[in-house]
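Risk mitigation, structural track. In case the binding assays with adenosine-5'-triphosphate fail to produce interpretable data, a predicted complex structure has been prepared as a fallback.
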Amino acid sequence: MTTFLKIRDLWKSFGQFVALRDISLDVIEGEFLCFLGPSGCGKTTLLRAIAGLDIQTAGTIHQAGKDVSNLPPAERDFGIVFQSYALFPNLTISENISFGLENAGKNKAEVKKRVDELLQLIGLPEQRDKYPAQLSGGQQQRIALARAIATSPGLLLLDEPLSALDAKVRVHLRHEMTELQRKLKVTTVMVTHDQEEALSMADRIVVMNHGVIEQVGTPTEIYTDPVSLFVADFIGEMNQVPAEVTKEGEVRVGNRTLLCRTGDFAPGSKVIAALRPEDVIPHDKDVRLPGTPDVIETLQNTFDVVIKEMEFLGSFWRTSVSDEEAEGLDLTADFSINAVRRLSLAVGEKITVELPADRLKAFSETSGAEQ
Amino acid sequence: MSSVESIPGPKIRKKVGTDALIQRGFIVVIALYLIITLAFPLYAMLSKAFEVYNYDLSQFSVQASDEEGNFTTGPVTLLDLNAELGLLGDSDMAAKGDGRLSLTQFFPDFSFRSPVMYRVAGTDEKSVFLVGSERHVGTESVEVDSNTFRKVVVRPVKSRGMSNFTRYFSTPALFRSIGNSVFIATVSTIITVTLAFWFAYALSRSCMKYKGFFRLVAMAPILVPSLLPGIALVYLFGNQGILKGLLMGQSIYGPIGIVIGSVFFTFPHAMLIIGTALSISDARLYEAAVSLRASRWRTFWTVTIPGARYGLISAAFVVFNLVITDFGLPKVIGGQFNVLAVDIYKQVIGQQNFEMGAVVSVVLLLPALLAFAIDRQVQKKQVAGLTARSVVFEPKPDRKADTGWLFYCSLVAVFILGIIGICQMAALIKFWPYDMSLSLNNYAFDRMDGGGWAAYKNSIKLGLLTAFVGTVVVFLGAYMVEKTSDFTKGRSGFQMLAMMPMAIPGMVLGLAYIFFFNNPANPLNFIYGTMAILVVSTVTHFYTVSHLTAVTALKQMDTEFESVASSLKQPFYKLFARVTVPVCMPAILNISIYLFVNAMTTVSAVVFLYSTDTALASIAVLNMDDAGDIAPAAAMGMMIFYTNAAARLLHAVGSRAILKRSEAWRQR
Ligand SMILES: Nc1ncnc2c1ncn2[C@@H]1O[C@H](COP(=O)(O)OP(=O)(O)OP(=O)(O)O)[C@@H](O)[C@H]1O
Ligand SMILES: [Mg+2]
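Fallback model:
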């Protein structure tokens, strides 16, 4: 695993406004990296700094060992696809793709061969003499991709390449693009604000917020082990309950004490205890045999709740439950169709739920990383 | 997040690549072009307006000898001499730039035959006096005999001050023009905007027949110089006019003529602007009004007028500006009714009083600048209103109303075609009204003063050169402003410069060119009196509209084309040639036809700048009319009309062909 792109202490300001703040990041050779974050967090700005299109205010960028920090785009080595694709409207598909191949020391026949190869690769060999306006959005996107990789750049930059497409085409192209990237093994950085896109396509994800990197990790790391409430909330859903750390590994919510990953929080700290809805485990009524309360006692973080609302979301039931004994313990839980049927769950019913201690995690009240 | 923060570490300084270097070069060259052809001349003109010349008598002393040539008395300053003699008052001290004051008048018993000798000297190092054509500077004294003493003159001293303006405002004959100009501009604006609004309304909101024809007719006045309607009015209502009776004793020479002519030549401009405003209004609002059972009258006031209000305001300011800065029409038909634009001409050409010409120019600049500033403001608002997606309004047939509209539009068309038709008749009739037989005699321009056919050829040359040079300069300039990424300050400065010509009346520009280019100290002095200065002034005069057309076209192109090209390591000029220019071809053609037509018809800027070798057709119309050769003037005006009509036709055919060829990729 060699580092292909090394970004250090990068800042970017527009006048008074600081758009990127002290960004340091390594991009590994051949990986598919995603910048993910809400609108305006600086993803595009970072991508454009890498491309040299909008040079950073301070900080360095090394690409393949070479310092490219202050080079104009023409002196760097990358291909780029924009959200709009920016296909040249008056040039045919093959002219678009060959735009970067001309005067690059190739003769006509070589250029034609390369264009054919690329059209084959993106699966549009019959479209070569059409104009961009005559193609569908998805086809245009693939042409833009072909044009970007035509010169075999060492780095492929994609700024929301799929967001102009409708949902179905988008899902299809996600798959195609990752396939293509794996095949070419070109180091790729993609900007997106769609978490699903990032989770399904990326080898690693960089979650950004307000011009800083919140977390870098594989999709599963980011999802299962977010370092901050921001990341937790931005990717997937999260129950958040105000709590107080009583001792290491334990918090109190209302008048209930729960086992929890408290990290470095000192006893007495006010925290937010967080848990994903799908981590709430509904328990079989059998667990709670009459007259044997100790069975429950042995299960940690397990108590009774009342089902307030249920909403069918296709593959699961989104359920609001409320712990009537402990004030403020209202949770959203996702129960599988299976579980709902098996346990005959319905609004108004009382059920027993478990909040797995290793899934419940304490975060500081303000957003930002865990202390 | 926006707190002021110090960013640690060294700031990155971007390496300037080849592309950026070339682009900077272009920006600098084109900005220099605008600075030299616009900023410097205007500055020269402004400083001229504040240039004051006065004789400073304290600067010189004279010593006179006795009859034997012995100097017995000491030197006396002219100031003292004058005080002693009570000769010249303060007002006599004011001078024109080329004024001379002879010294003999300070010696009442002077005789050029007397043997008395005179010693003349300056009192300080900067004093200048002339002996004949010989310049003497400083305090050294010069001894001359009385015959030579006649040739000793002092020149006025240049200083800066407001006195030209005080003089202007204390001369009723001059400052009355301000009121006159504002008056005719206001009246013309009200009439034109009203007529144009209903005309545009009929075109966009009714199912009237022959819309295409009316559209074409409404644009015709653009093809002729603004003085042509003046000539037609002379034929209709002048001393021997066929319709003179209709004026009930009023003279056409004066405000009436100017207003009618102004309505004619400003009509297409107002119609275009209002037509655009009406065409973008939202059909959904009308449907809503219908479903609310609002009366037609109410719909009109609550939907139509608010929707078109920016267009109306904008049209009003454009018309006002056109009328107040127009020179040709009031020159032909203004009679004794003085307006600002003609005053400039009279001061400069008639009286050679350049300082006063500059003062009138400054006065004329003010309303024009104001109208321009307000118009820009309004246009910005309208663009904001345009972004909302709206549904195009489809009018429904209504027999009665459509007939009414047809009648109204026919009246307007008769007015426009009538004016042009009268000129055509005037051009063809041998000797109106005595010999009404037809002939082409009036087209024998070589038999009249004014430049003859050579002037017509010059105009064609000017039109083609302006179209070519102007389109290249304007489009390159707009591209650099719109599509380059660095050099931000330079670009915004350039953008400001490019907007300026719109606010500068042609007369003012022309006069400014005299001051700047006719200065022997200017290294560009050699273009004075050539075709080059005519081309340059015309390009600059019509720069803004062309620039805006180019910018609009460029804005519609994807902002990332340049980024893509540089990521593919292709120079920007390859992208420019292969993508930008072909995609913008319709706009480029529009710019060139606009420049051509305007170069053919313009009078105001070039009237100060043409020479005998470079007389122009439009100027010939003016001069022949001035000389009383009205029929040939009308004939030359019609030549301009035919040429422009042909050019437009050619342009339409060419544009259609290009659009057809690019149909495949333009659909979207
Ligand atoms: N040229 C600029 N001048 C001033 N501010 C800018 C400029 N470009 C970006 N910004 C600001 O910097 C911040 C980051 O912008 P950026 O385009 O990188 O966001 P983003 O994460 O890509 O958002 P989106 O998902 O909406 O594309 C935003 O607040 C934006 O307003
Ligand atoms: Mg973005």
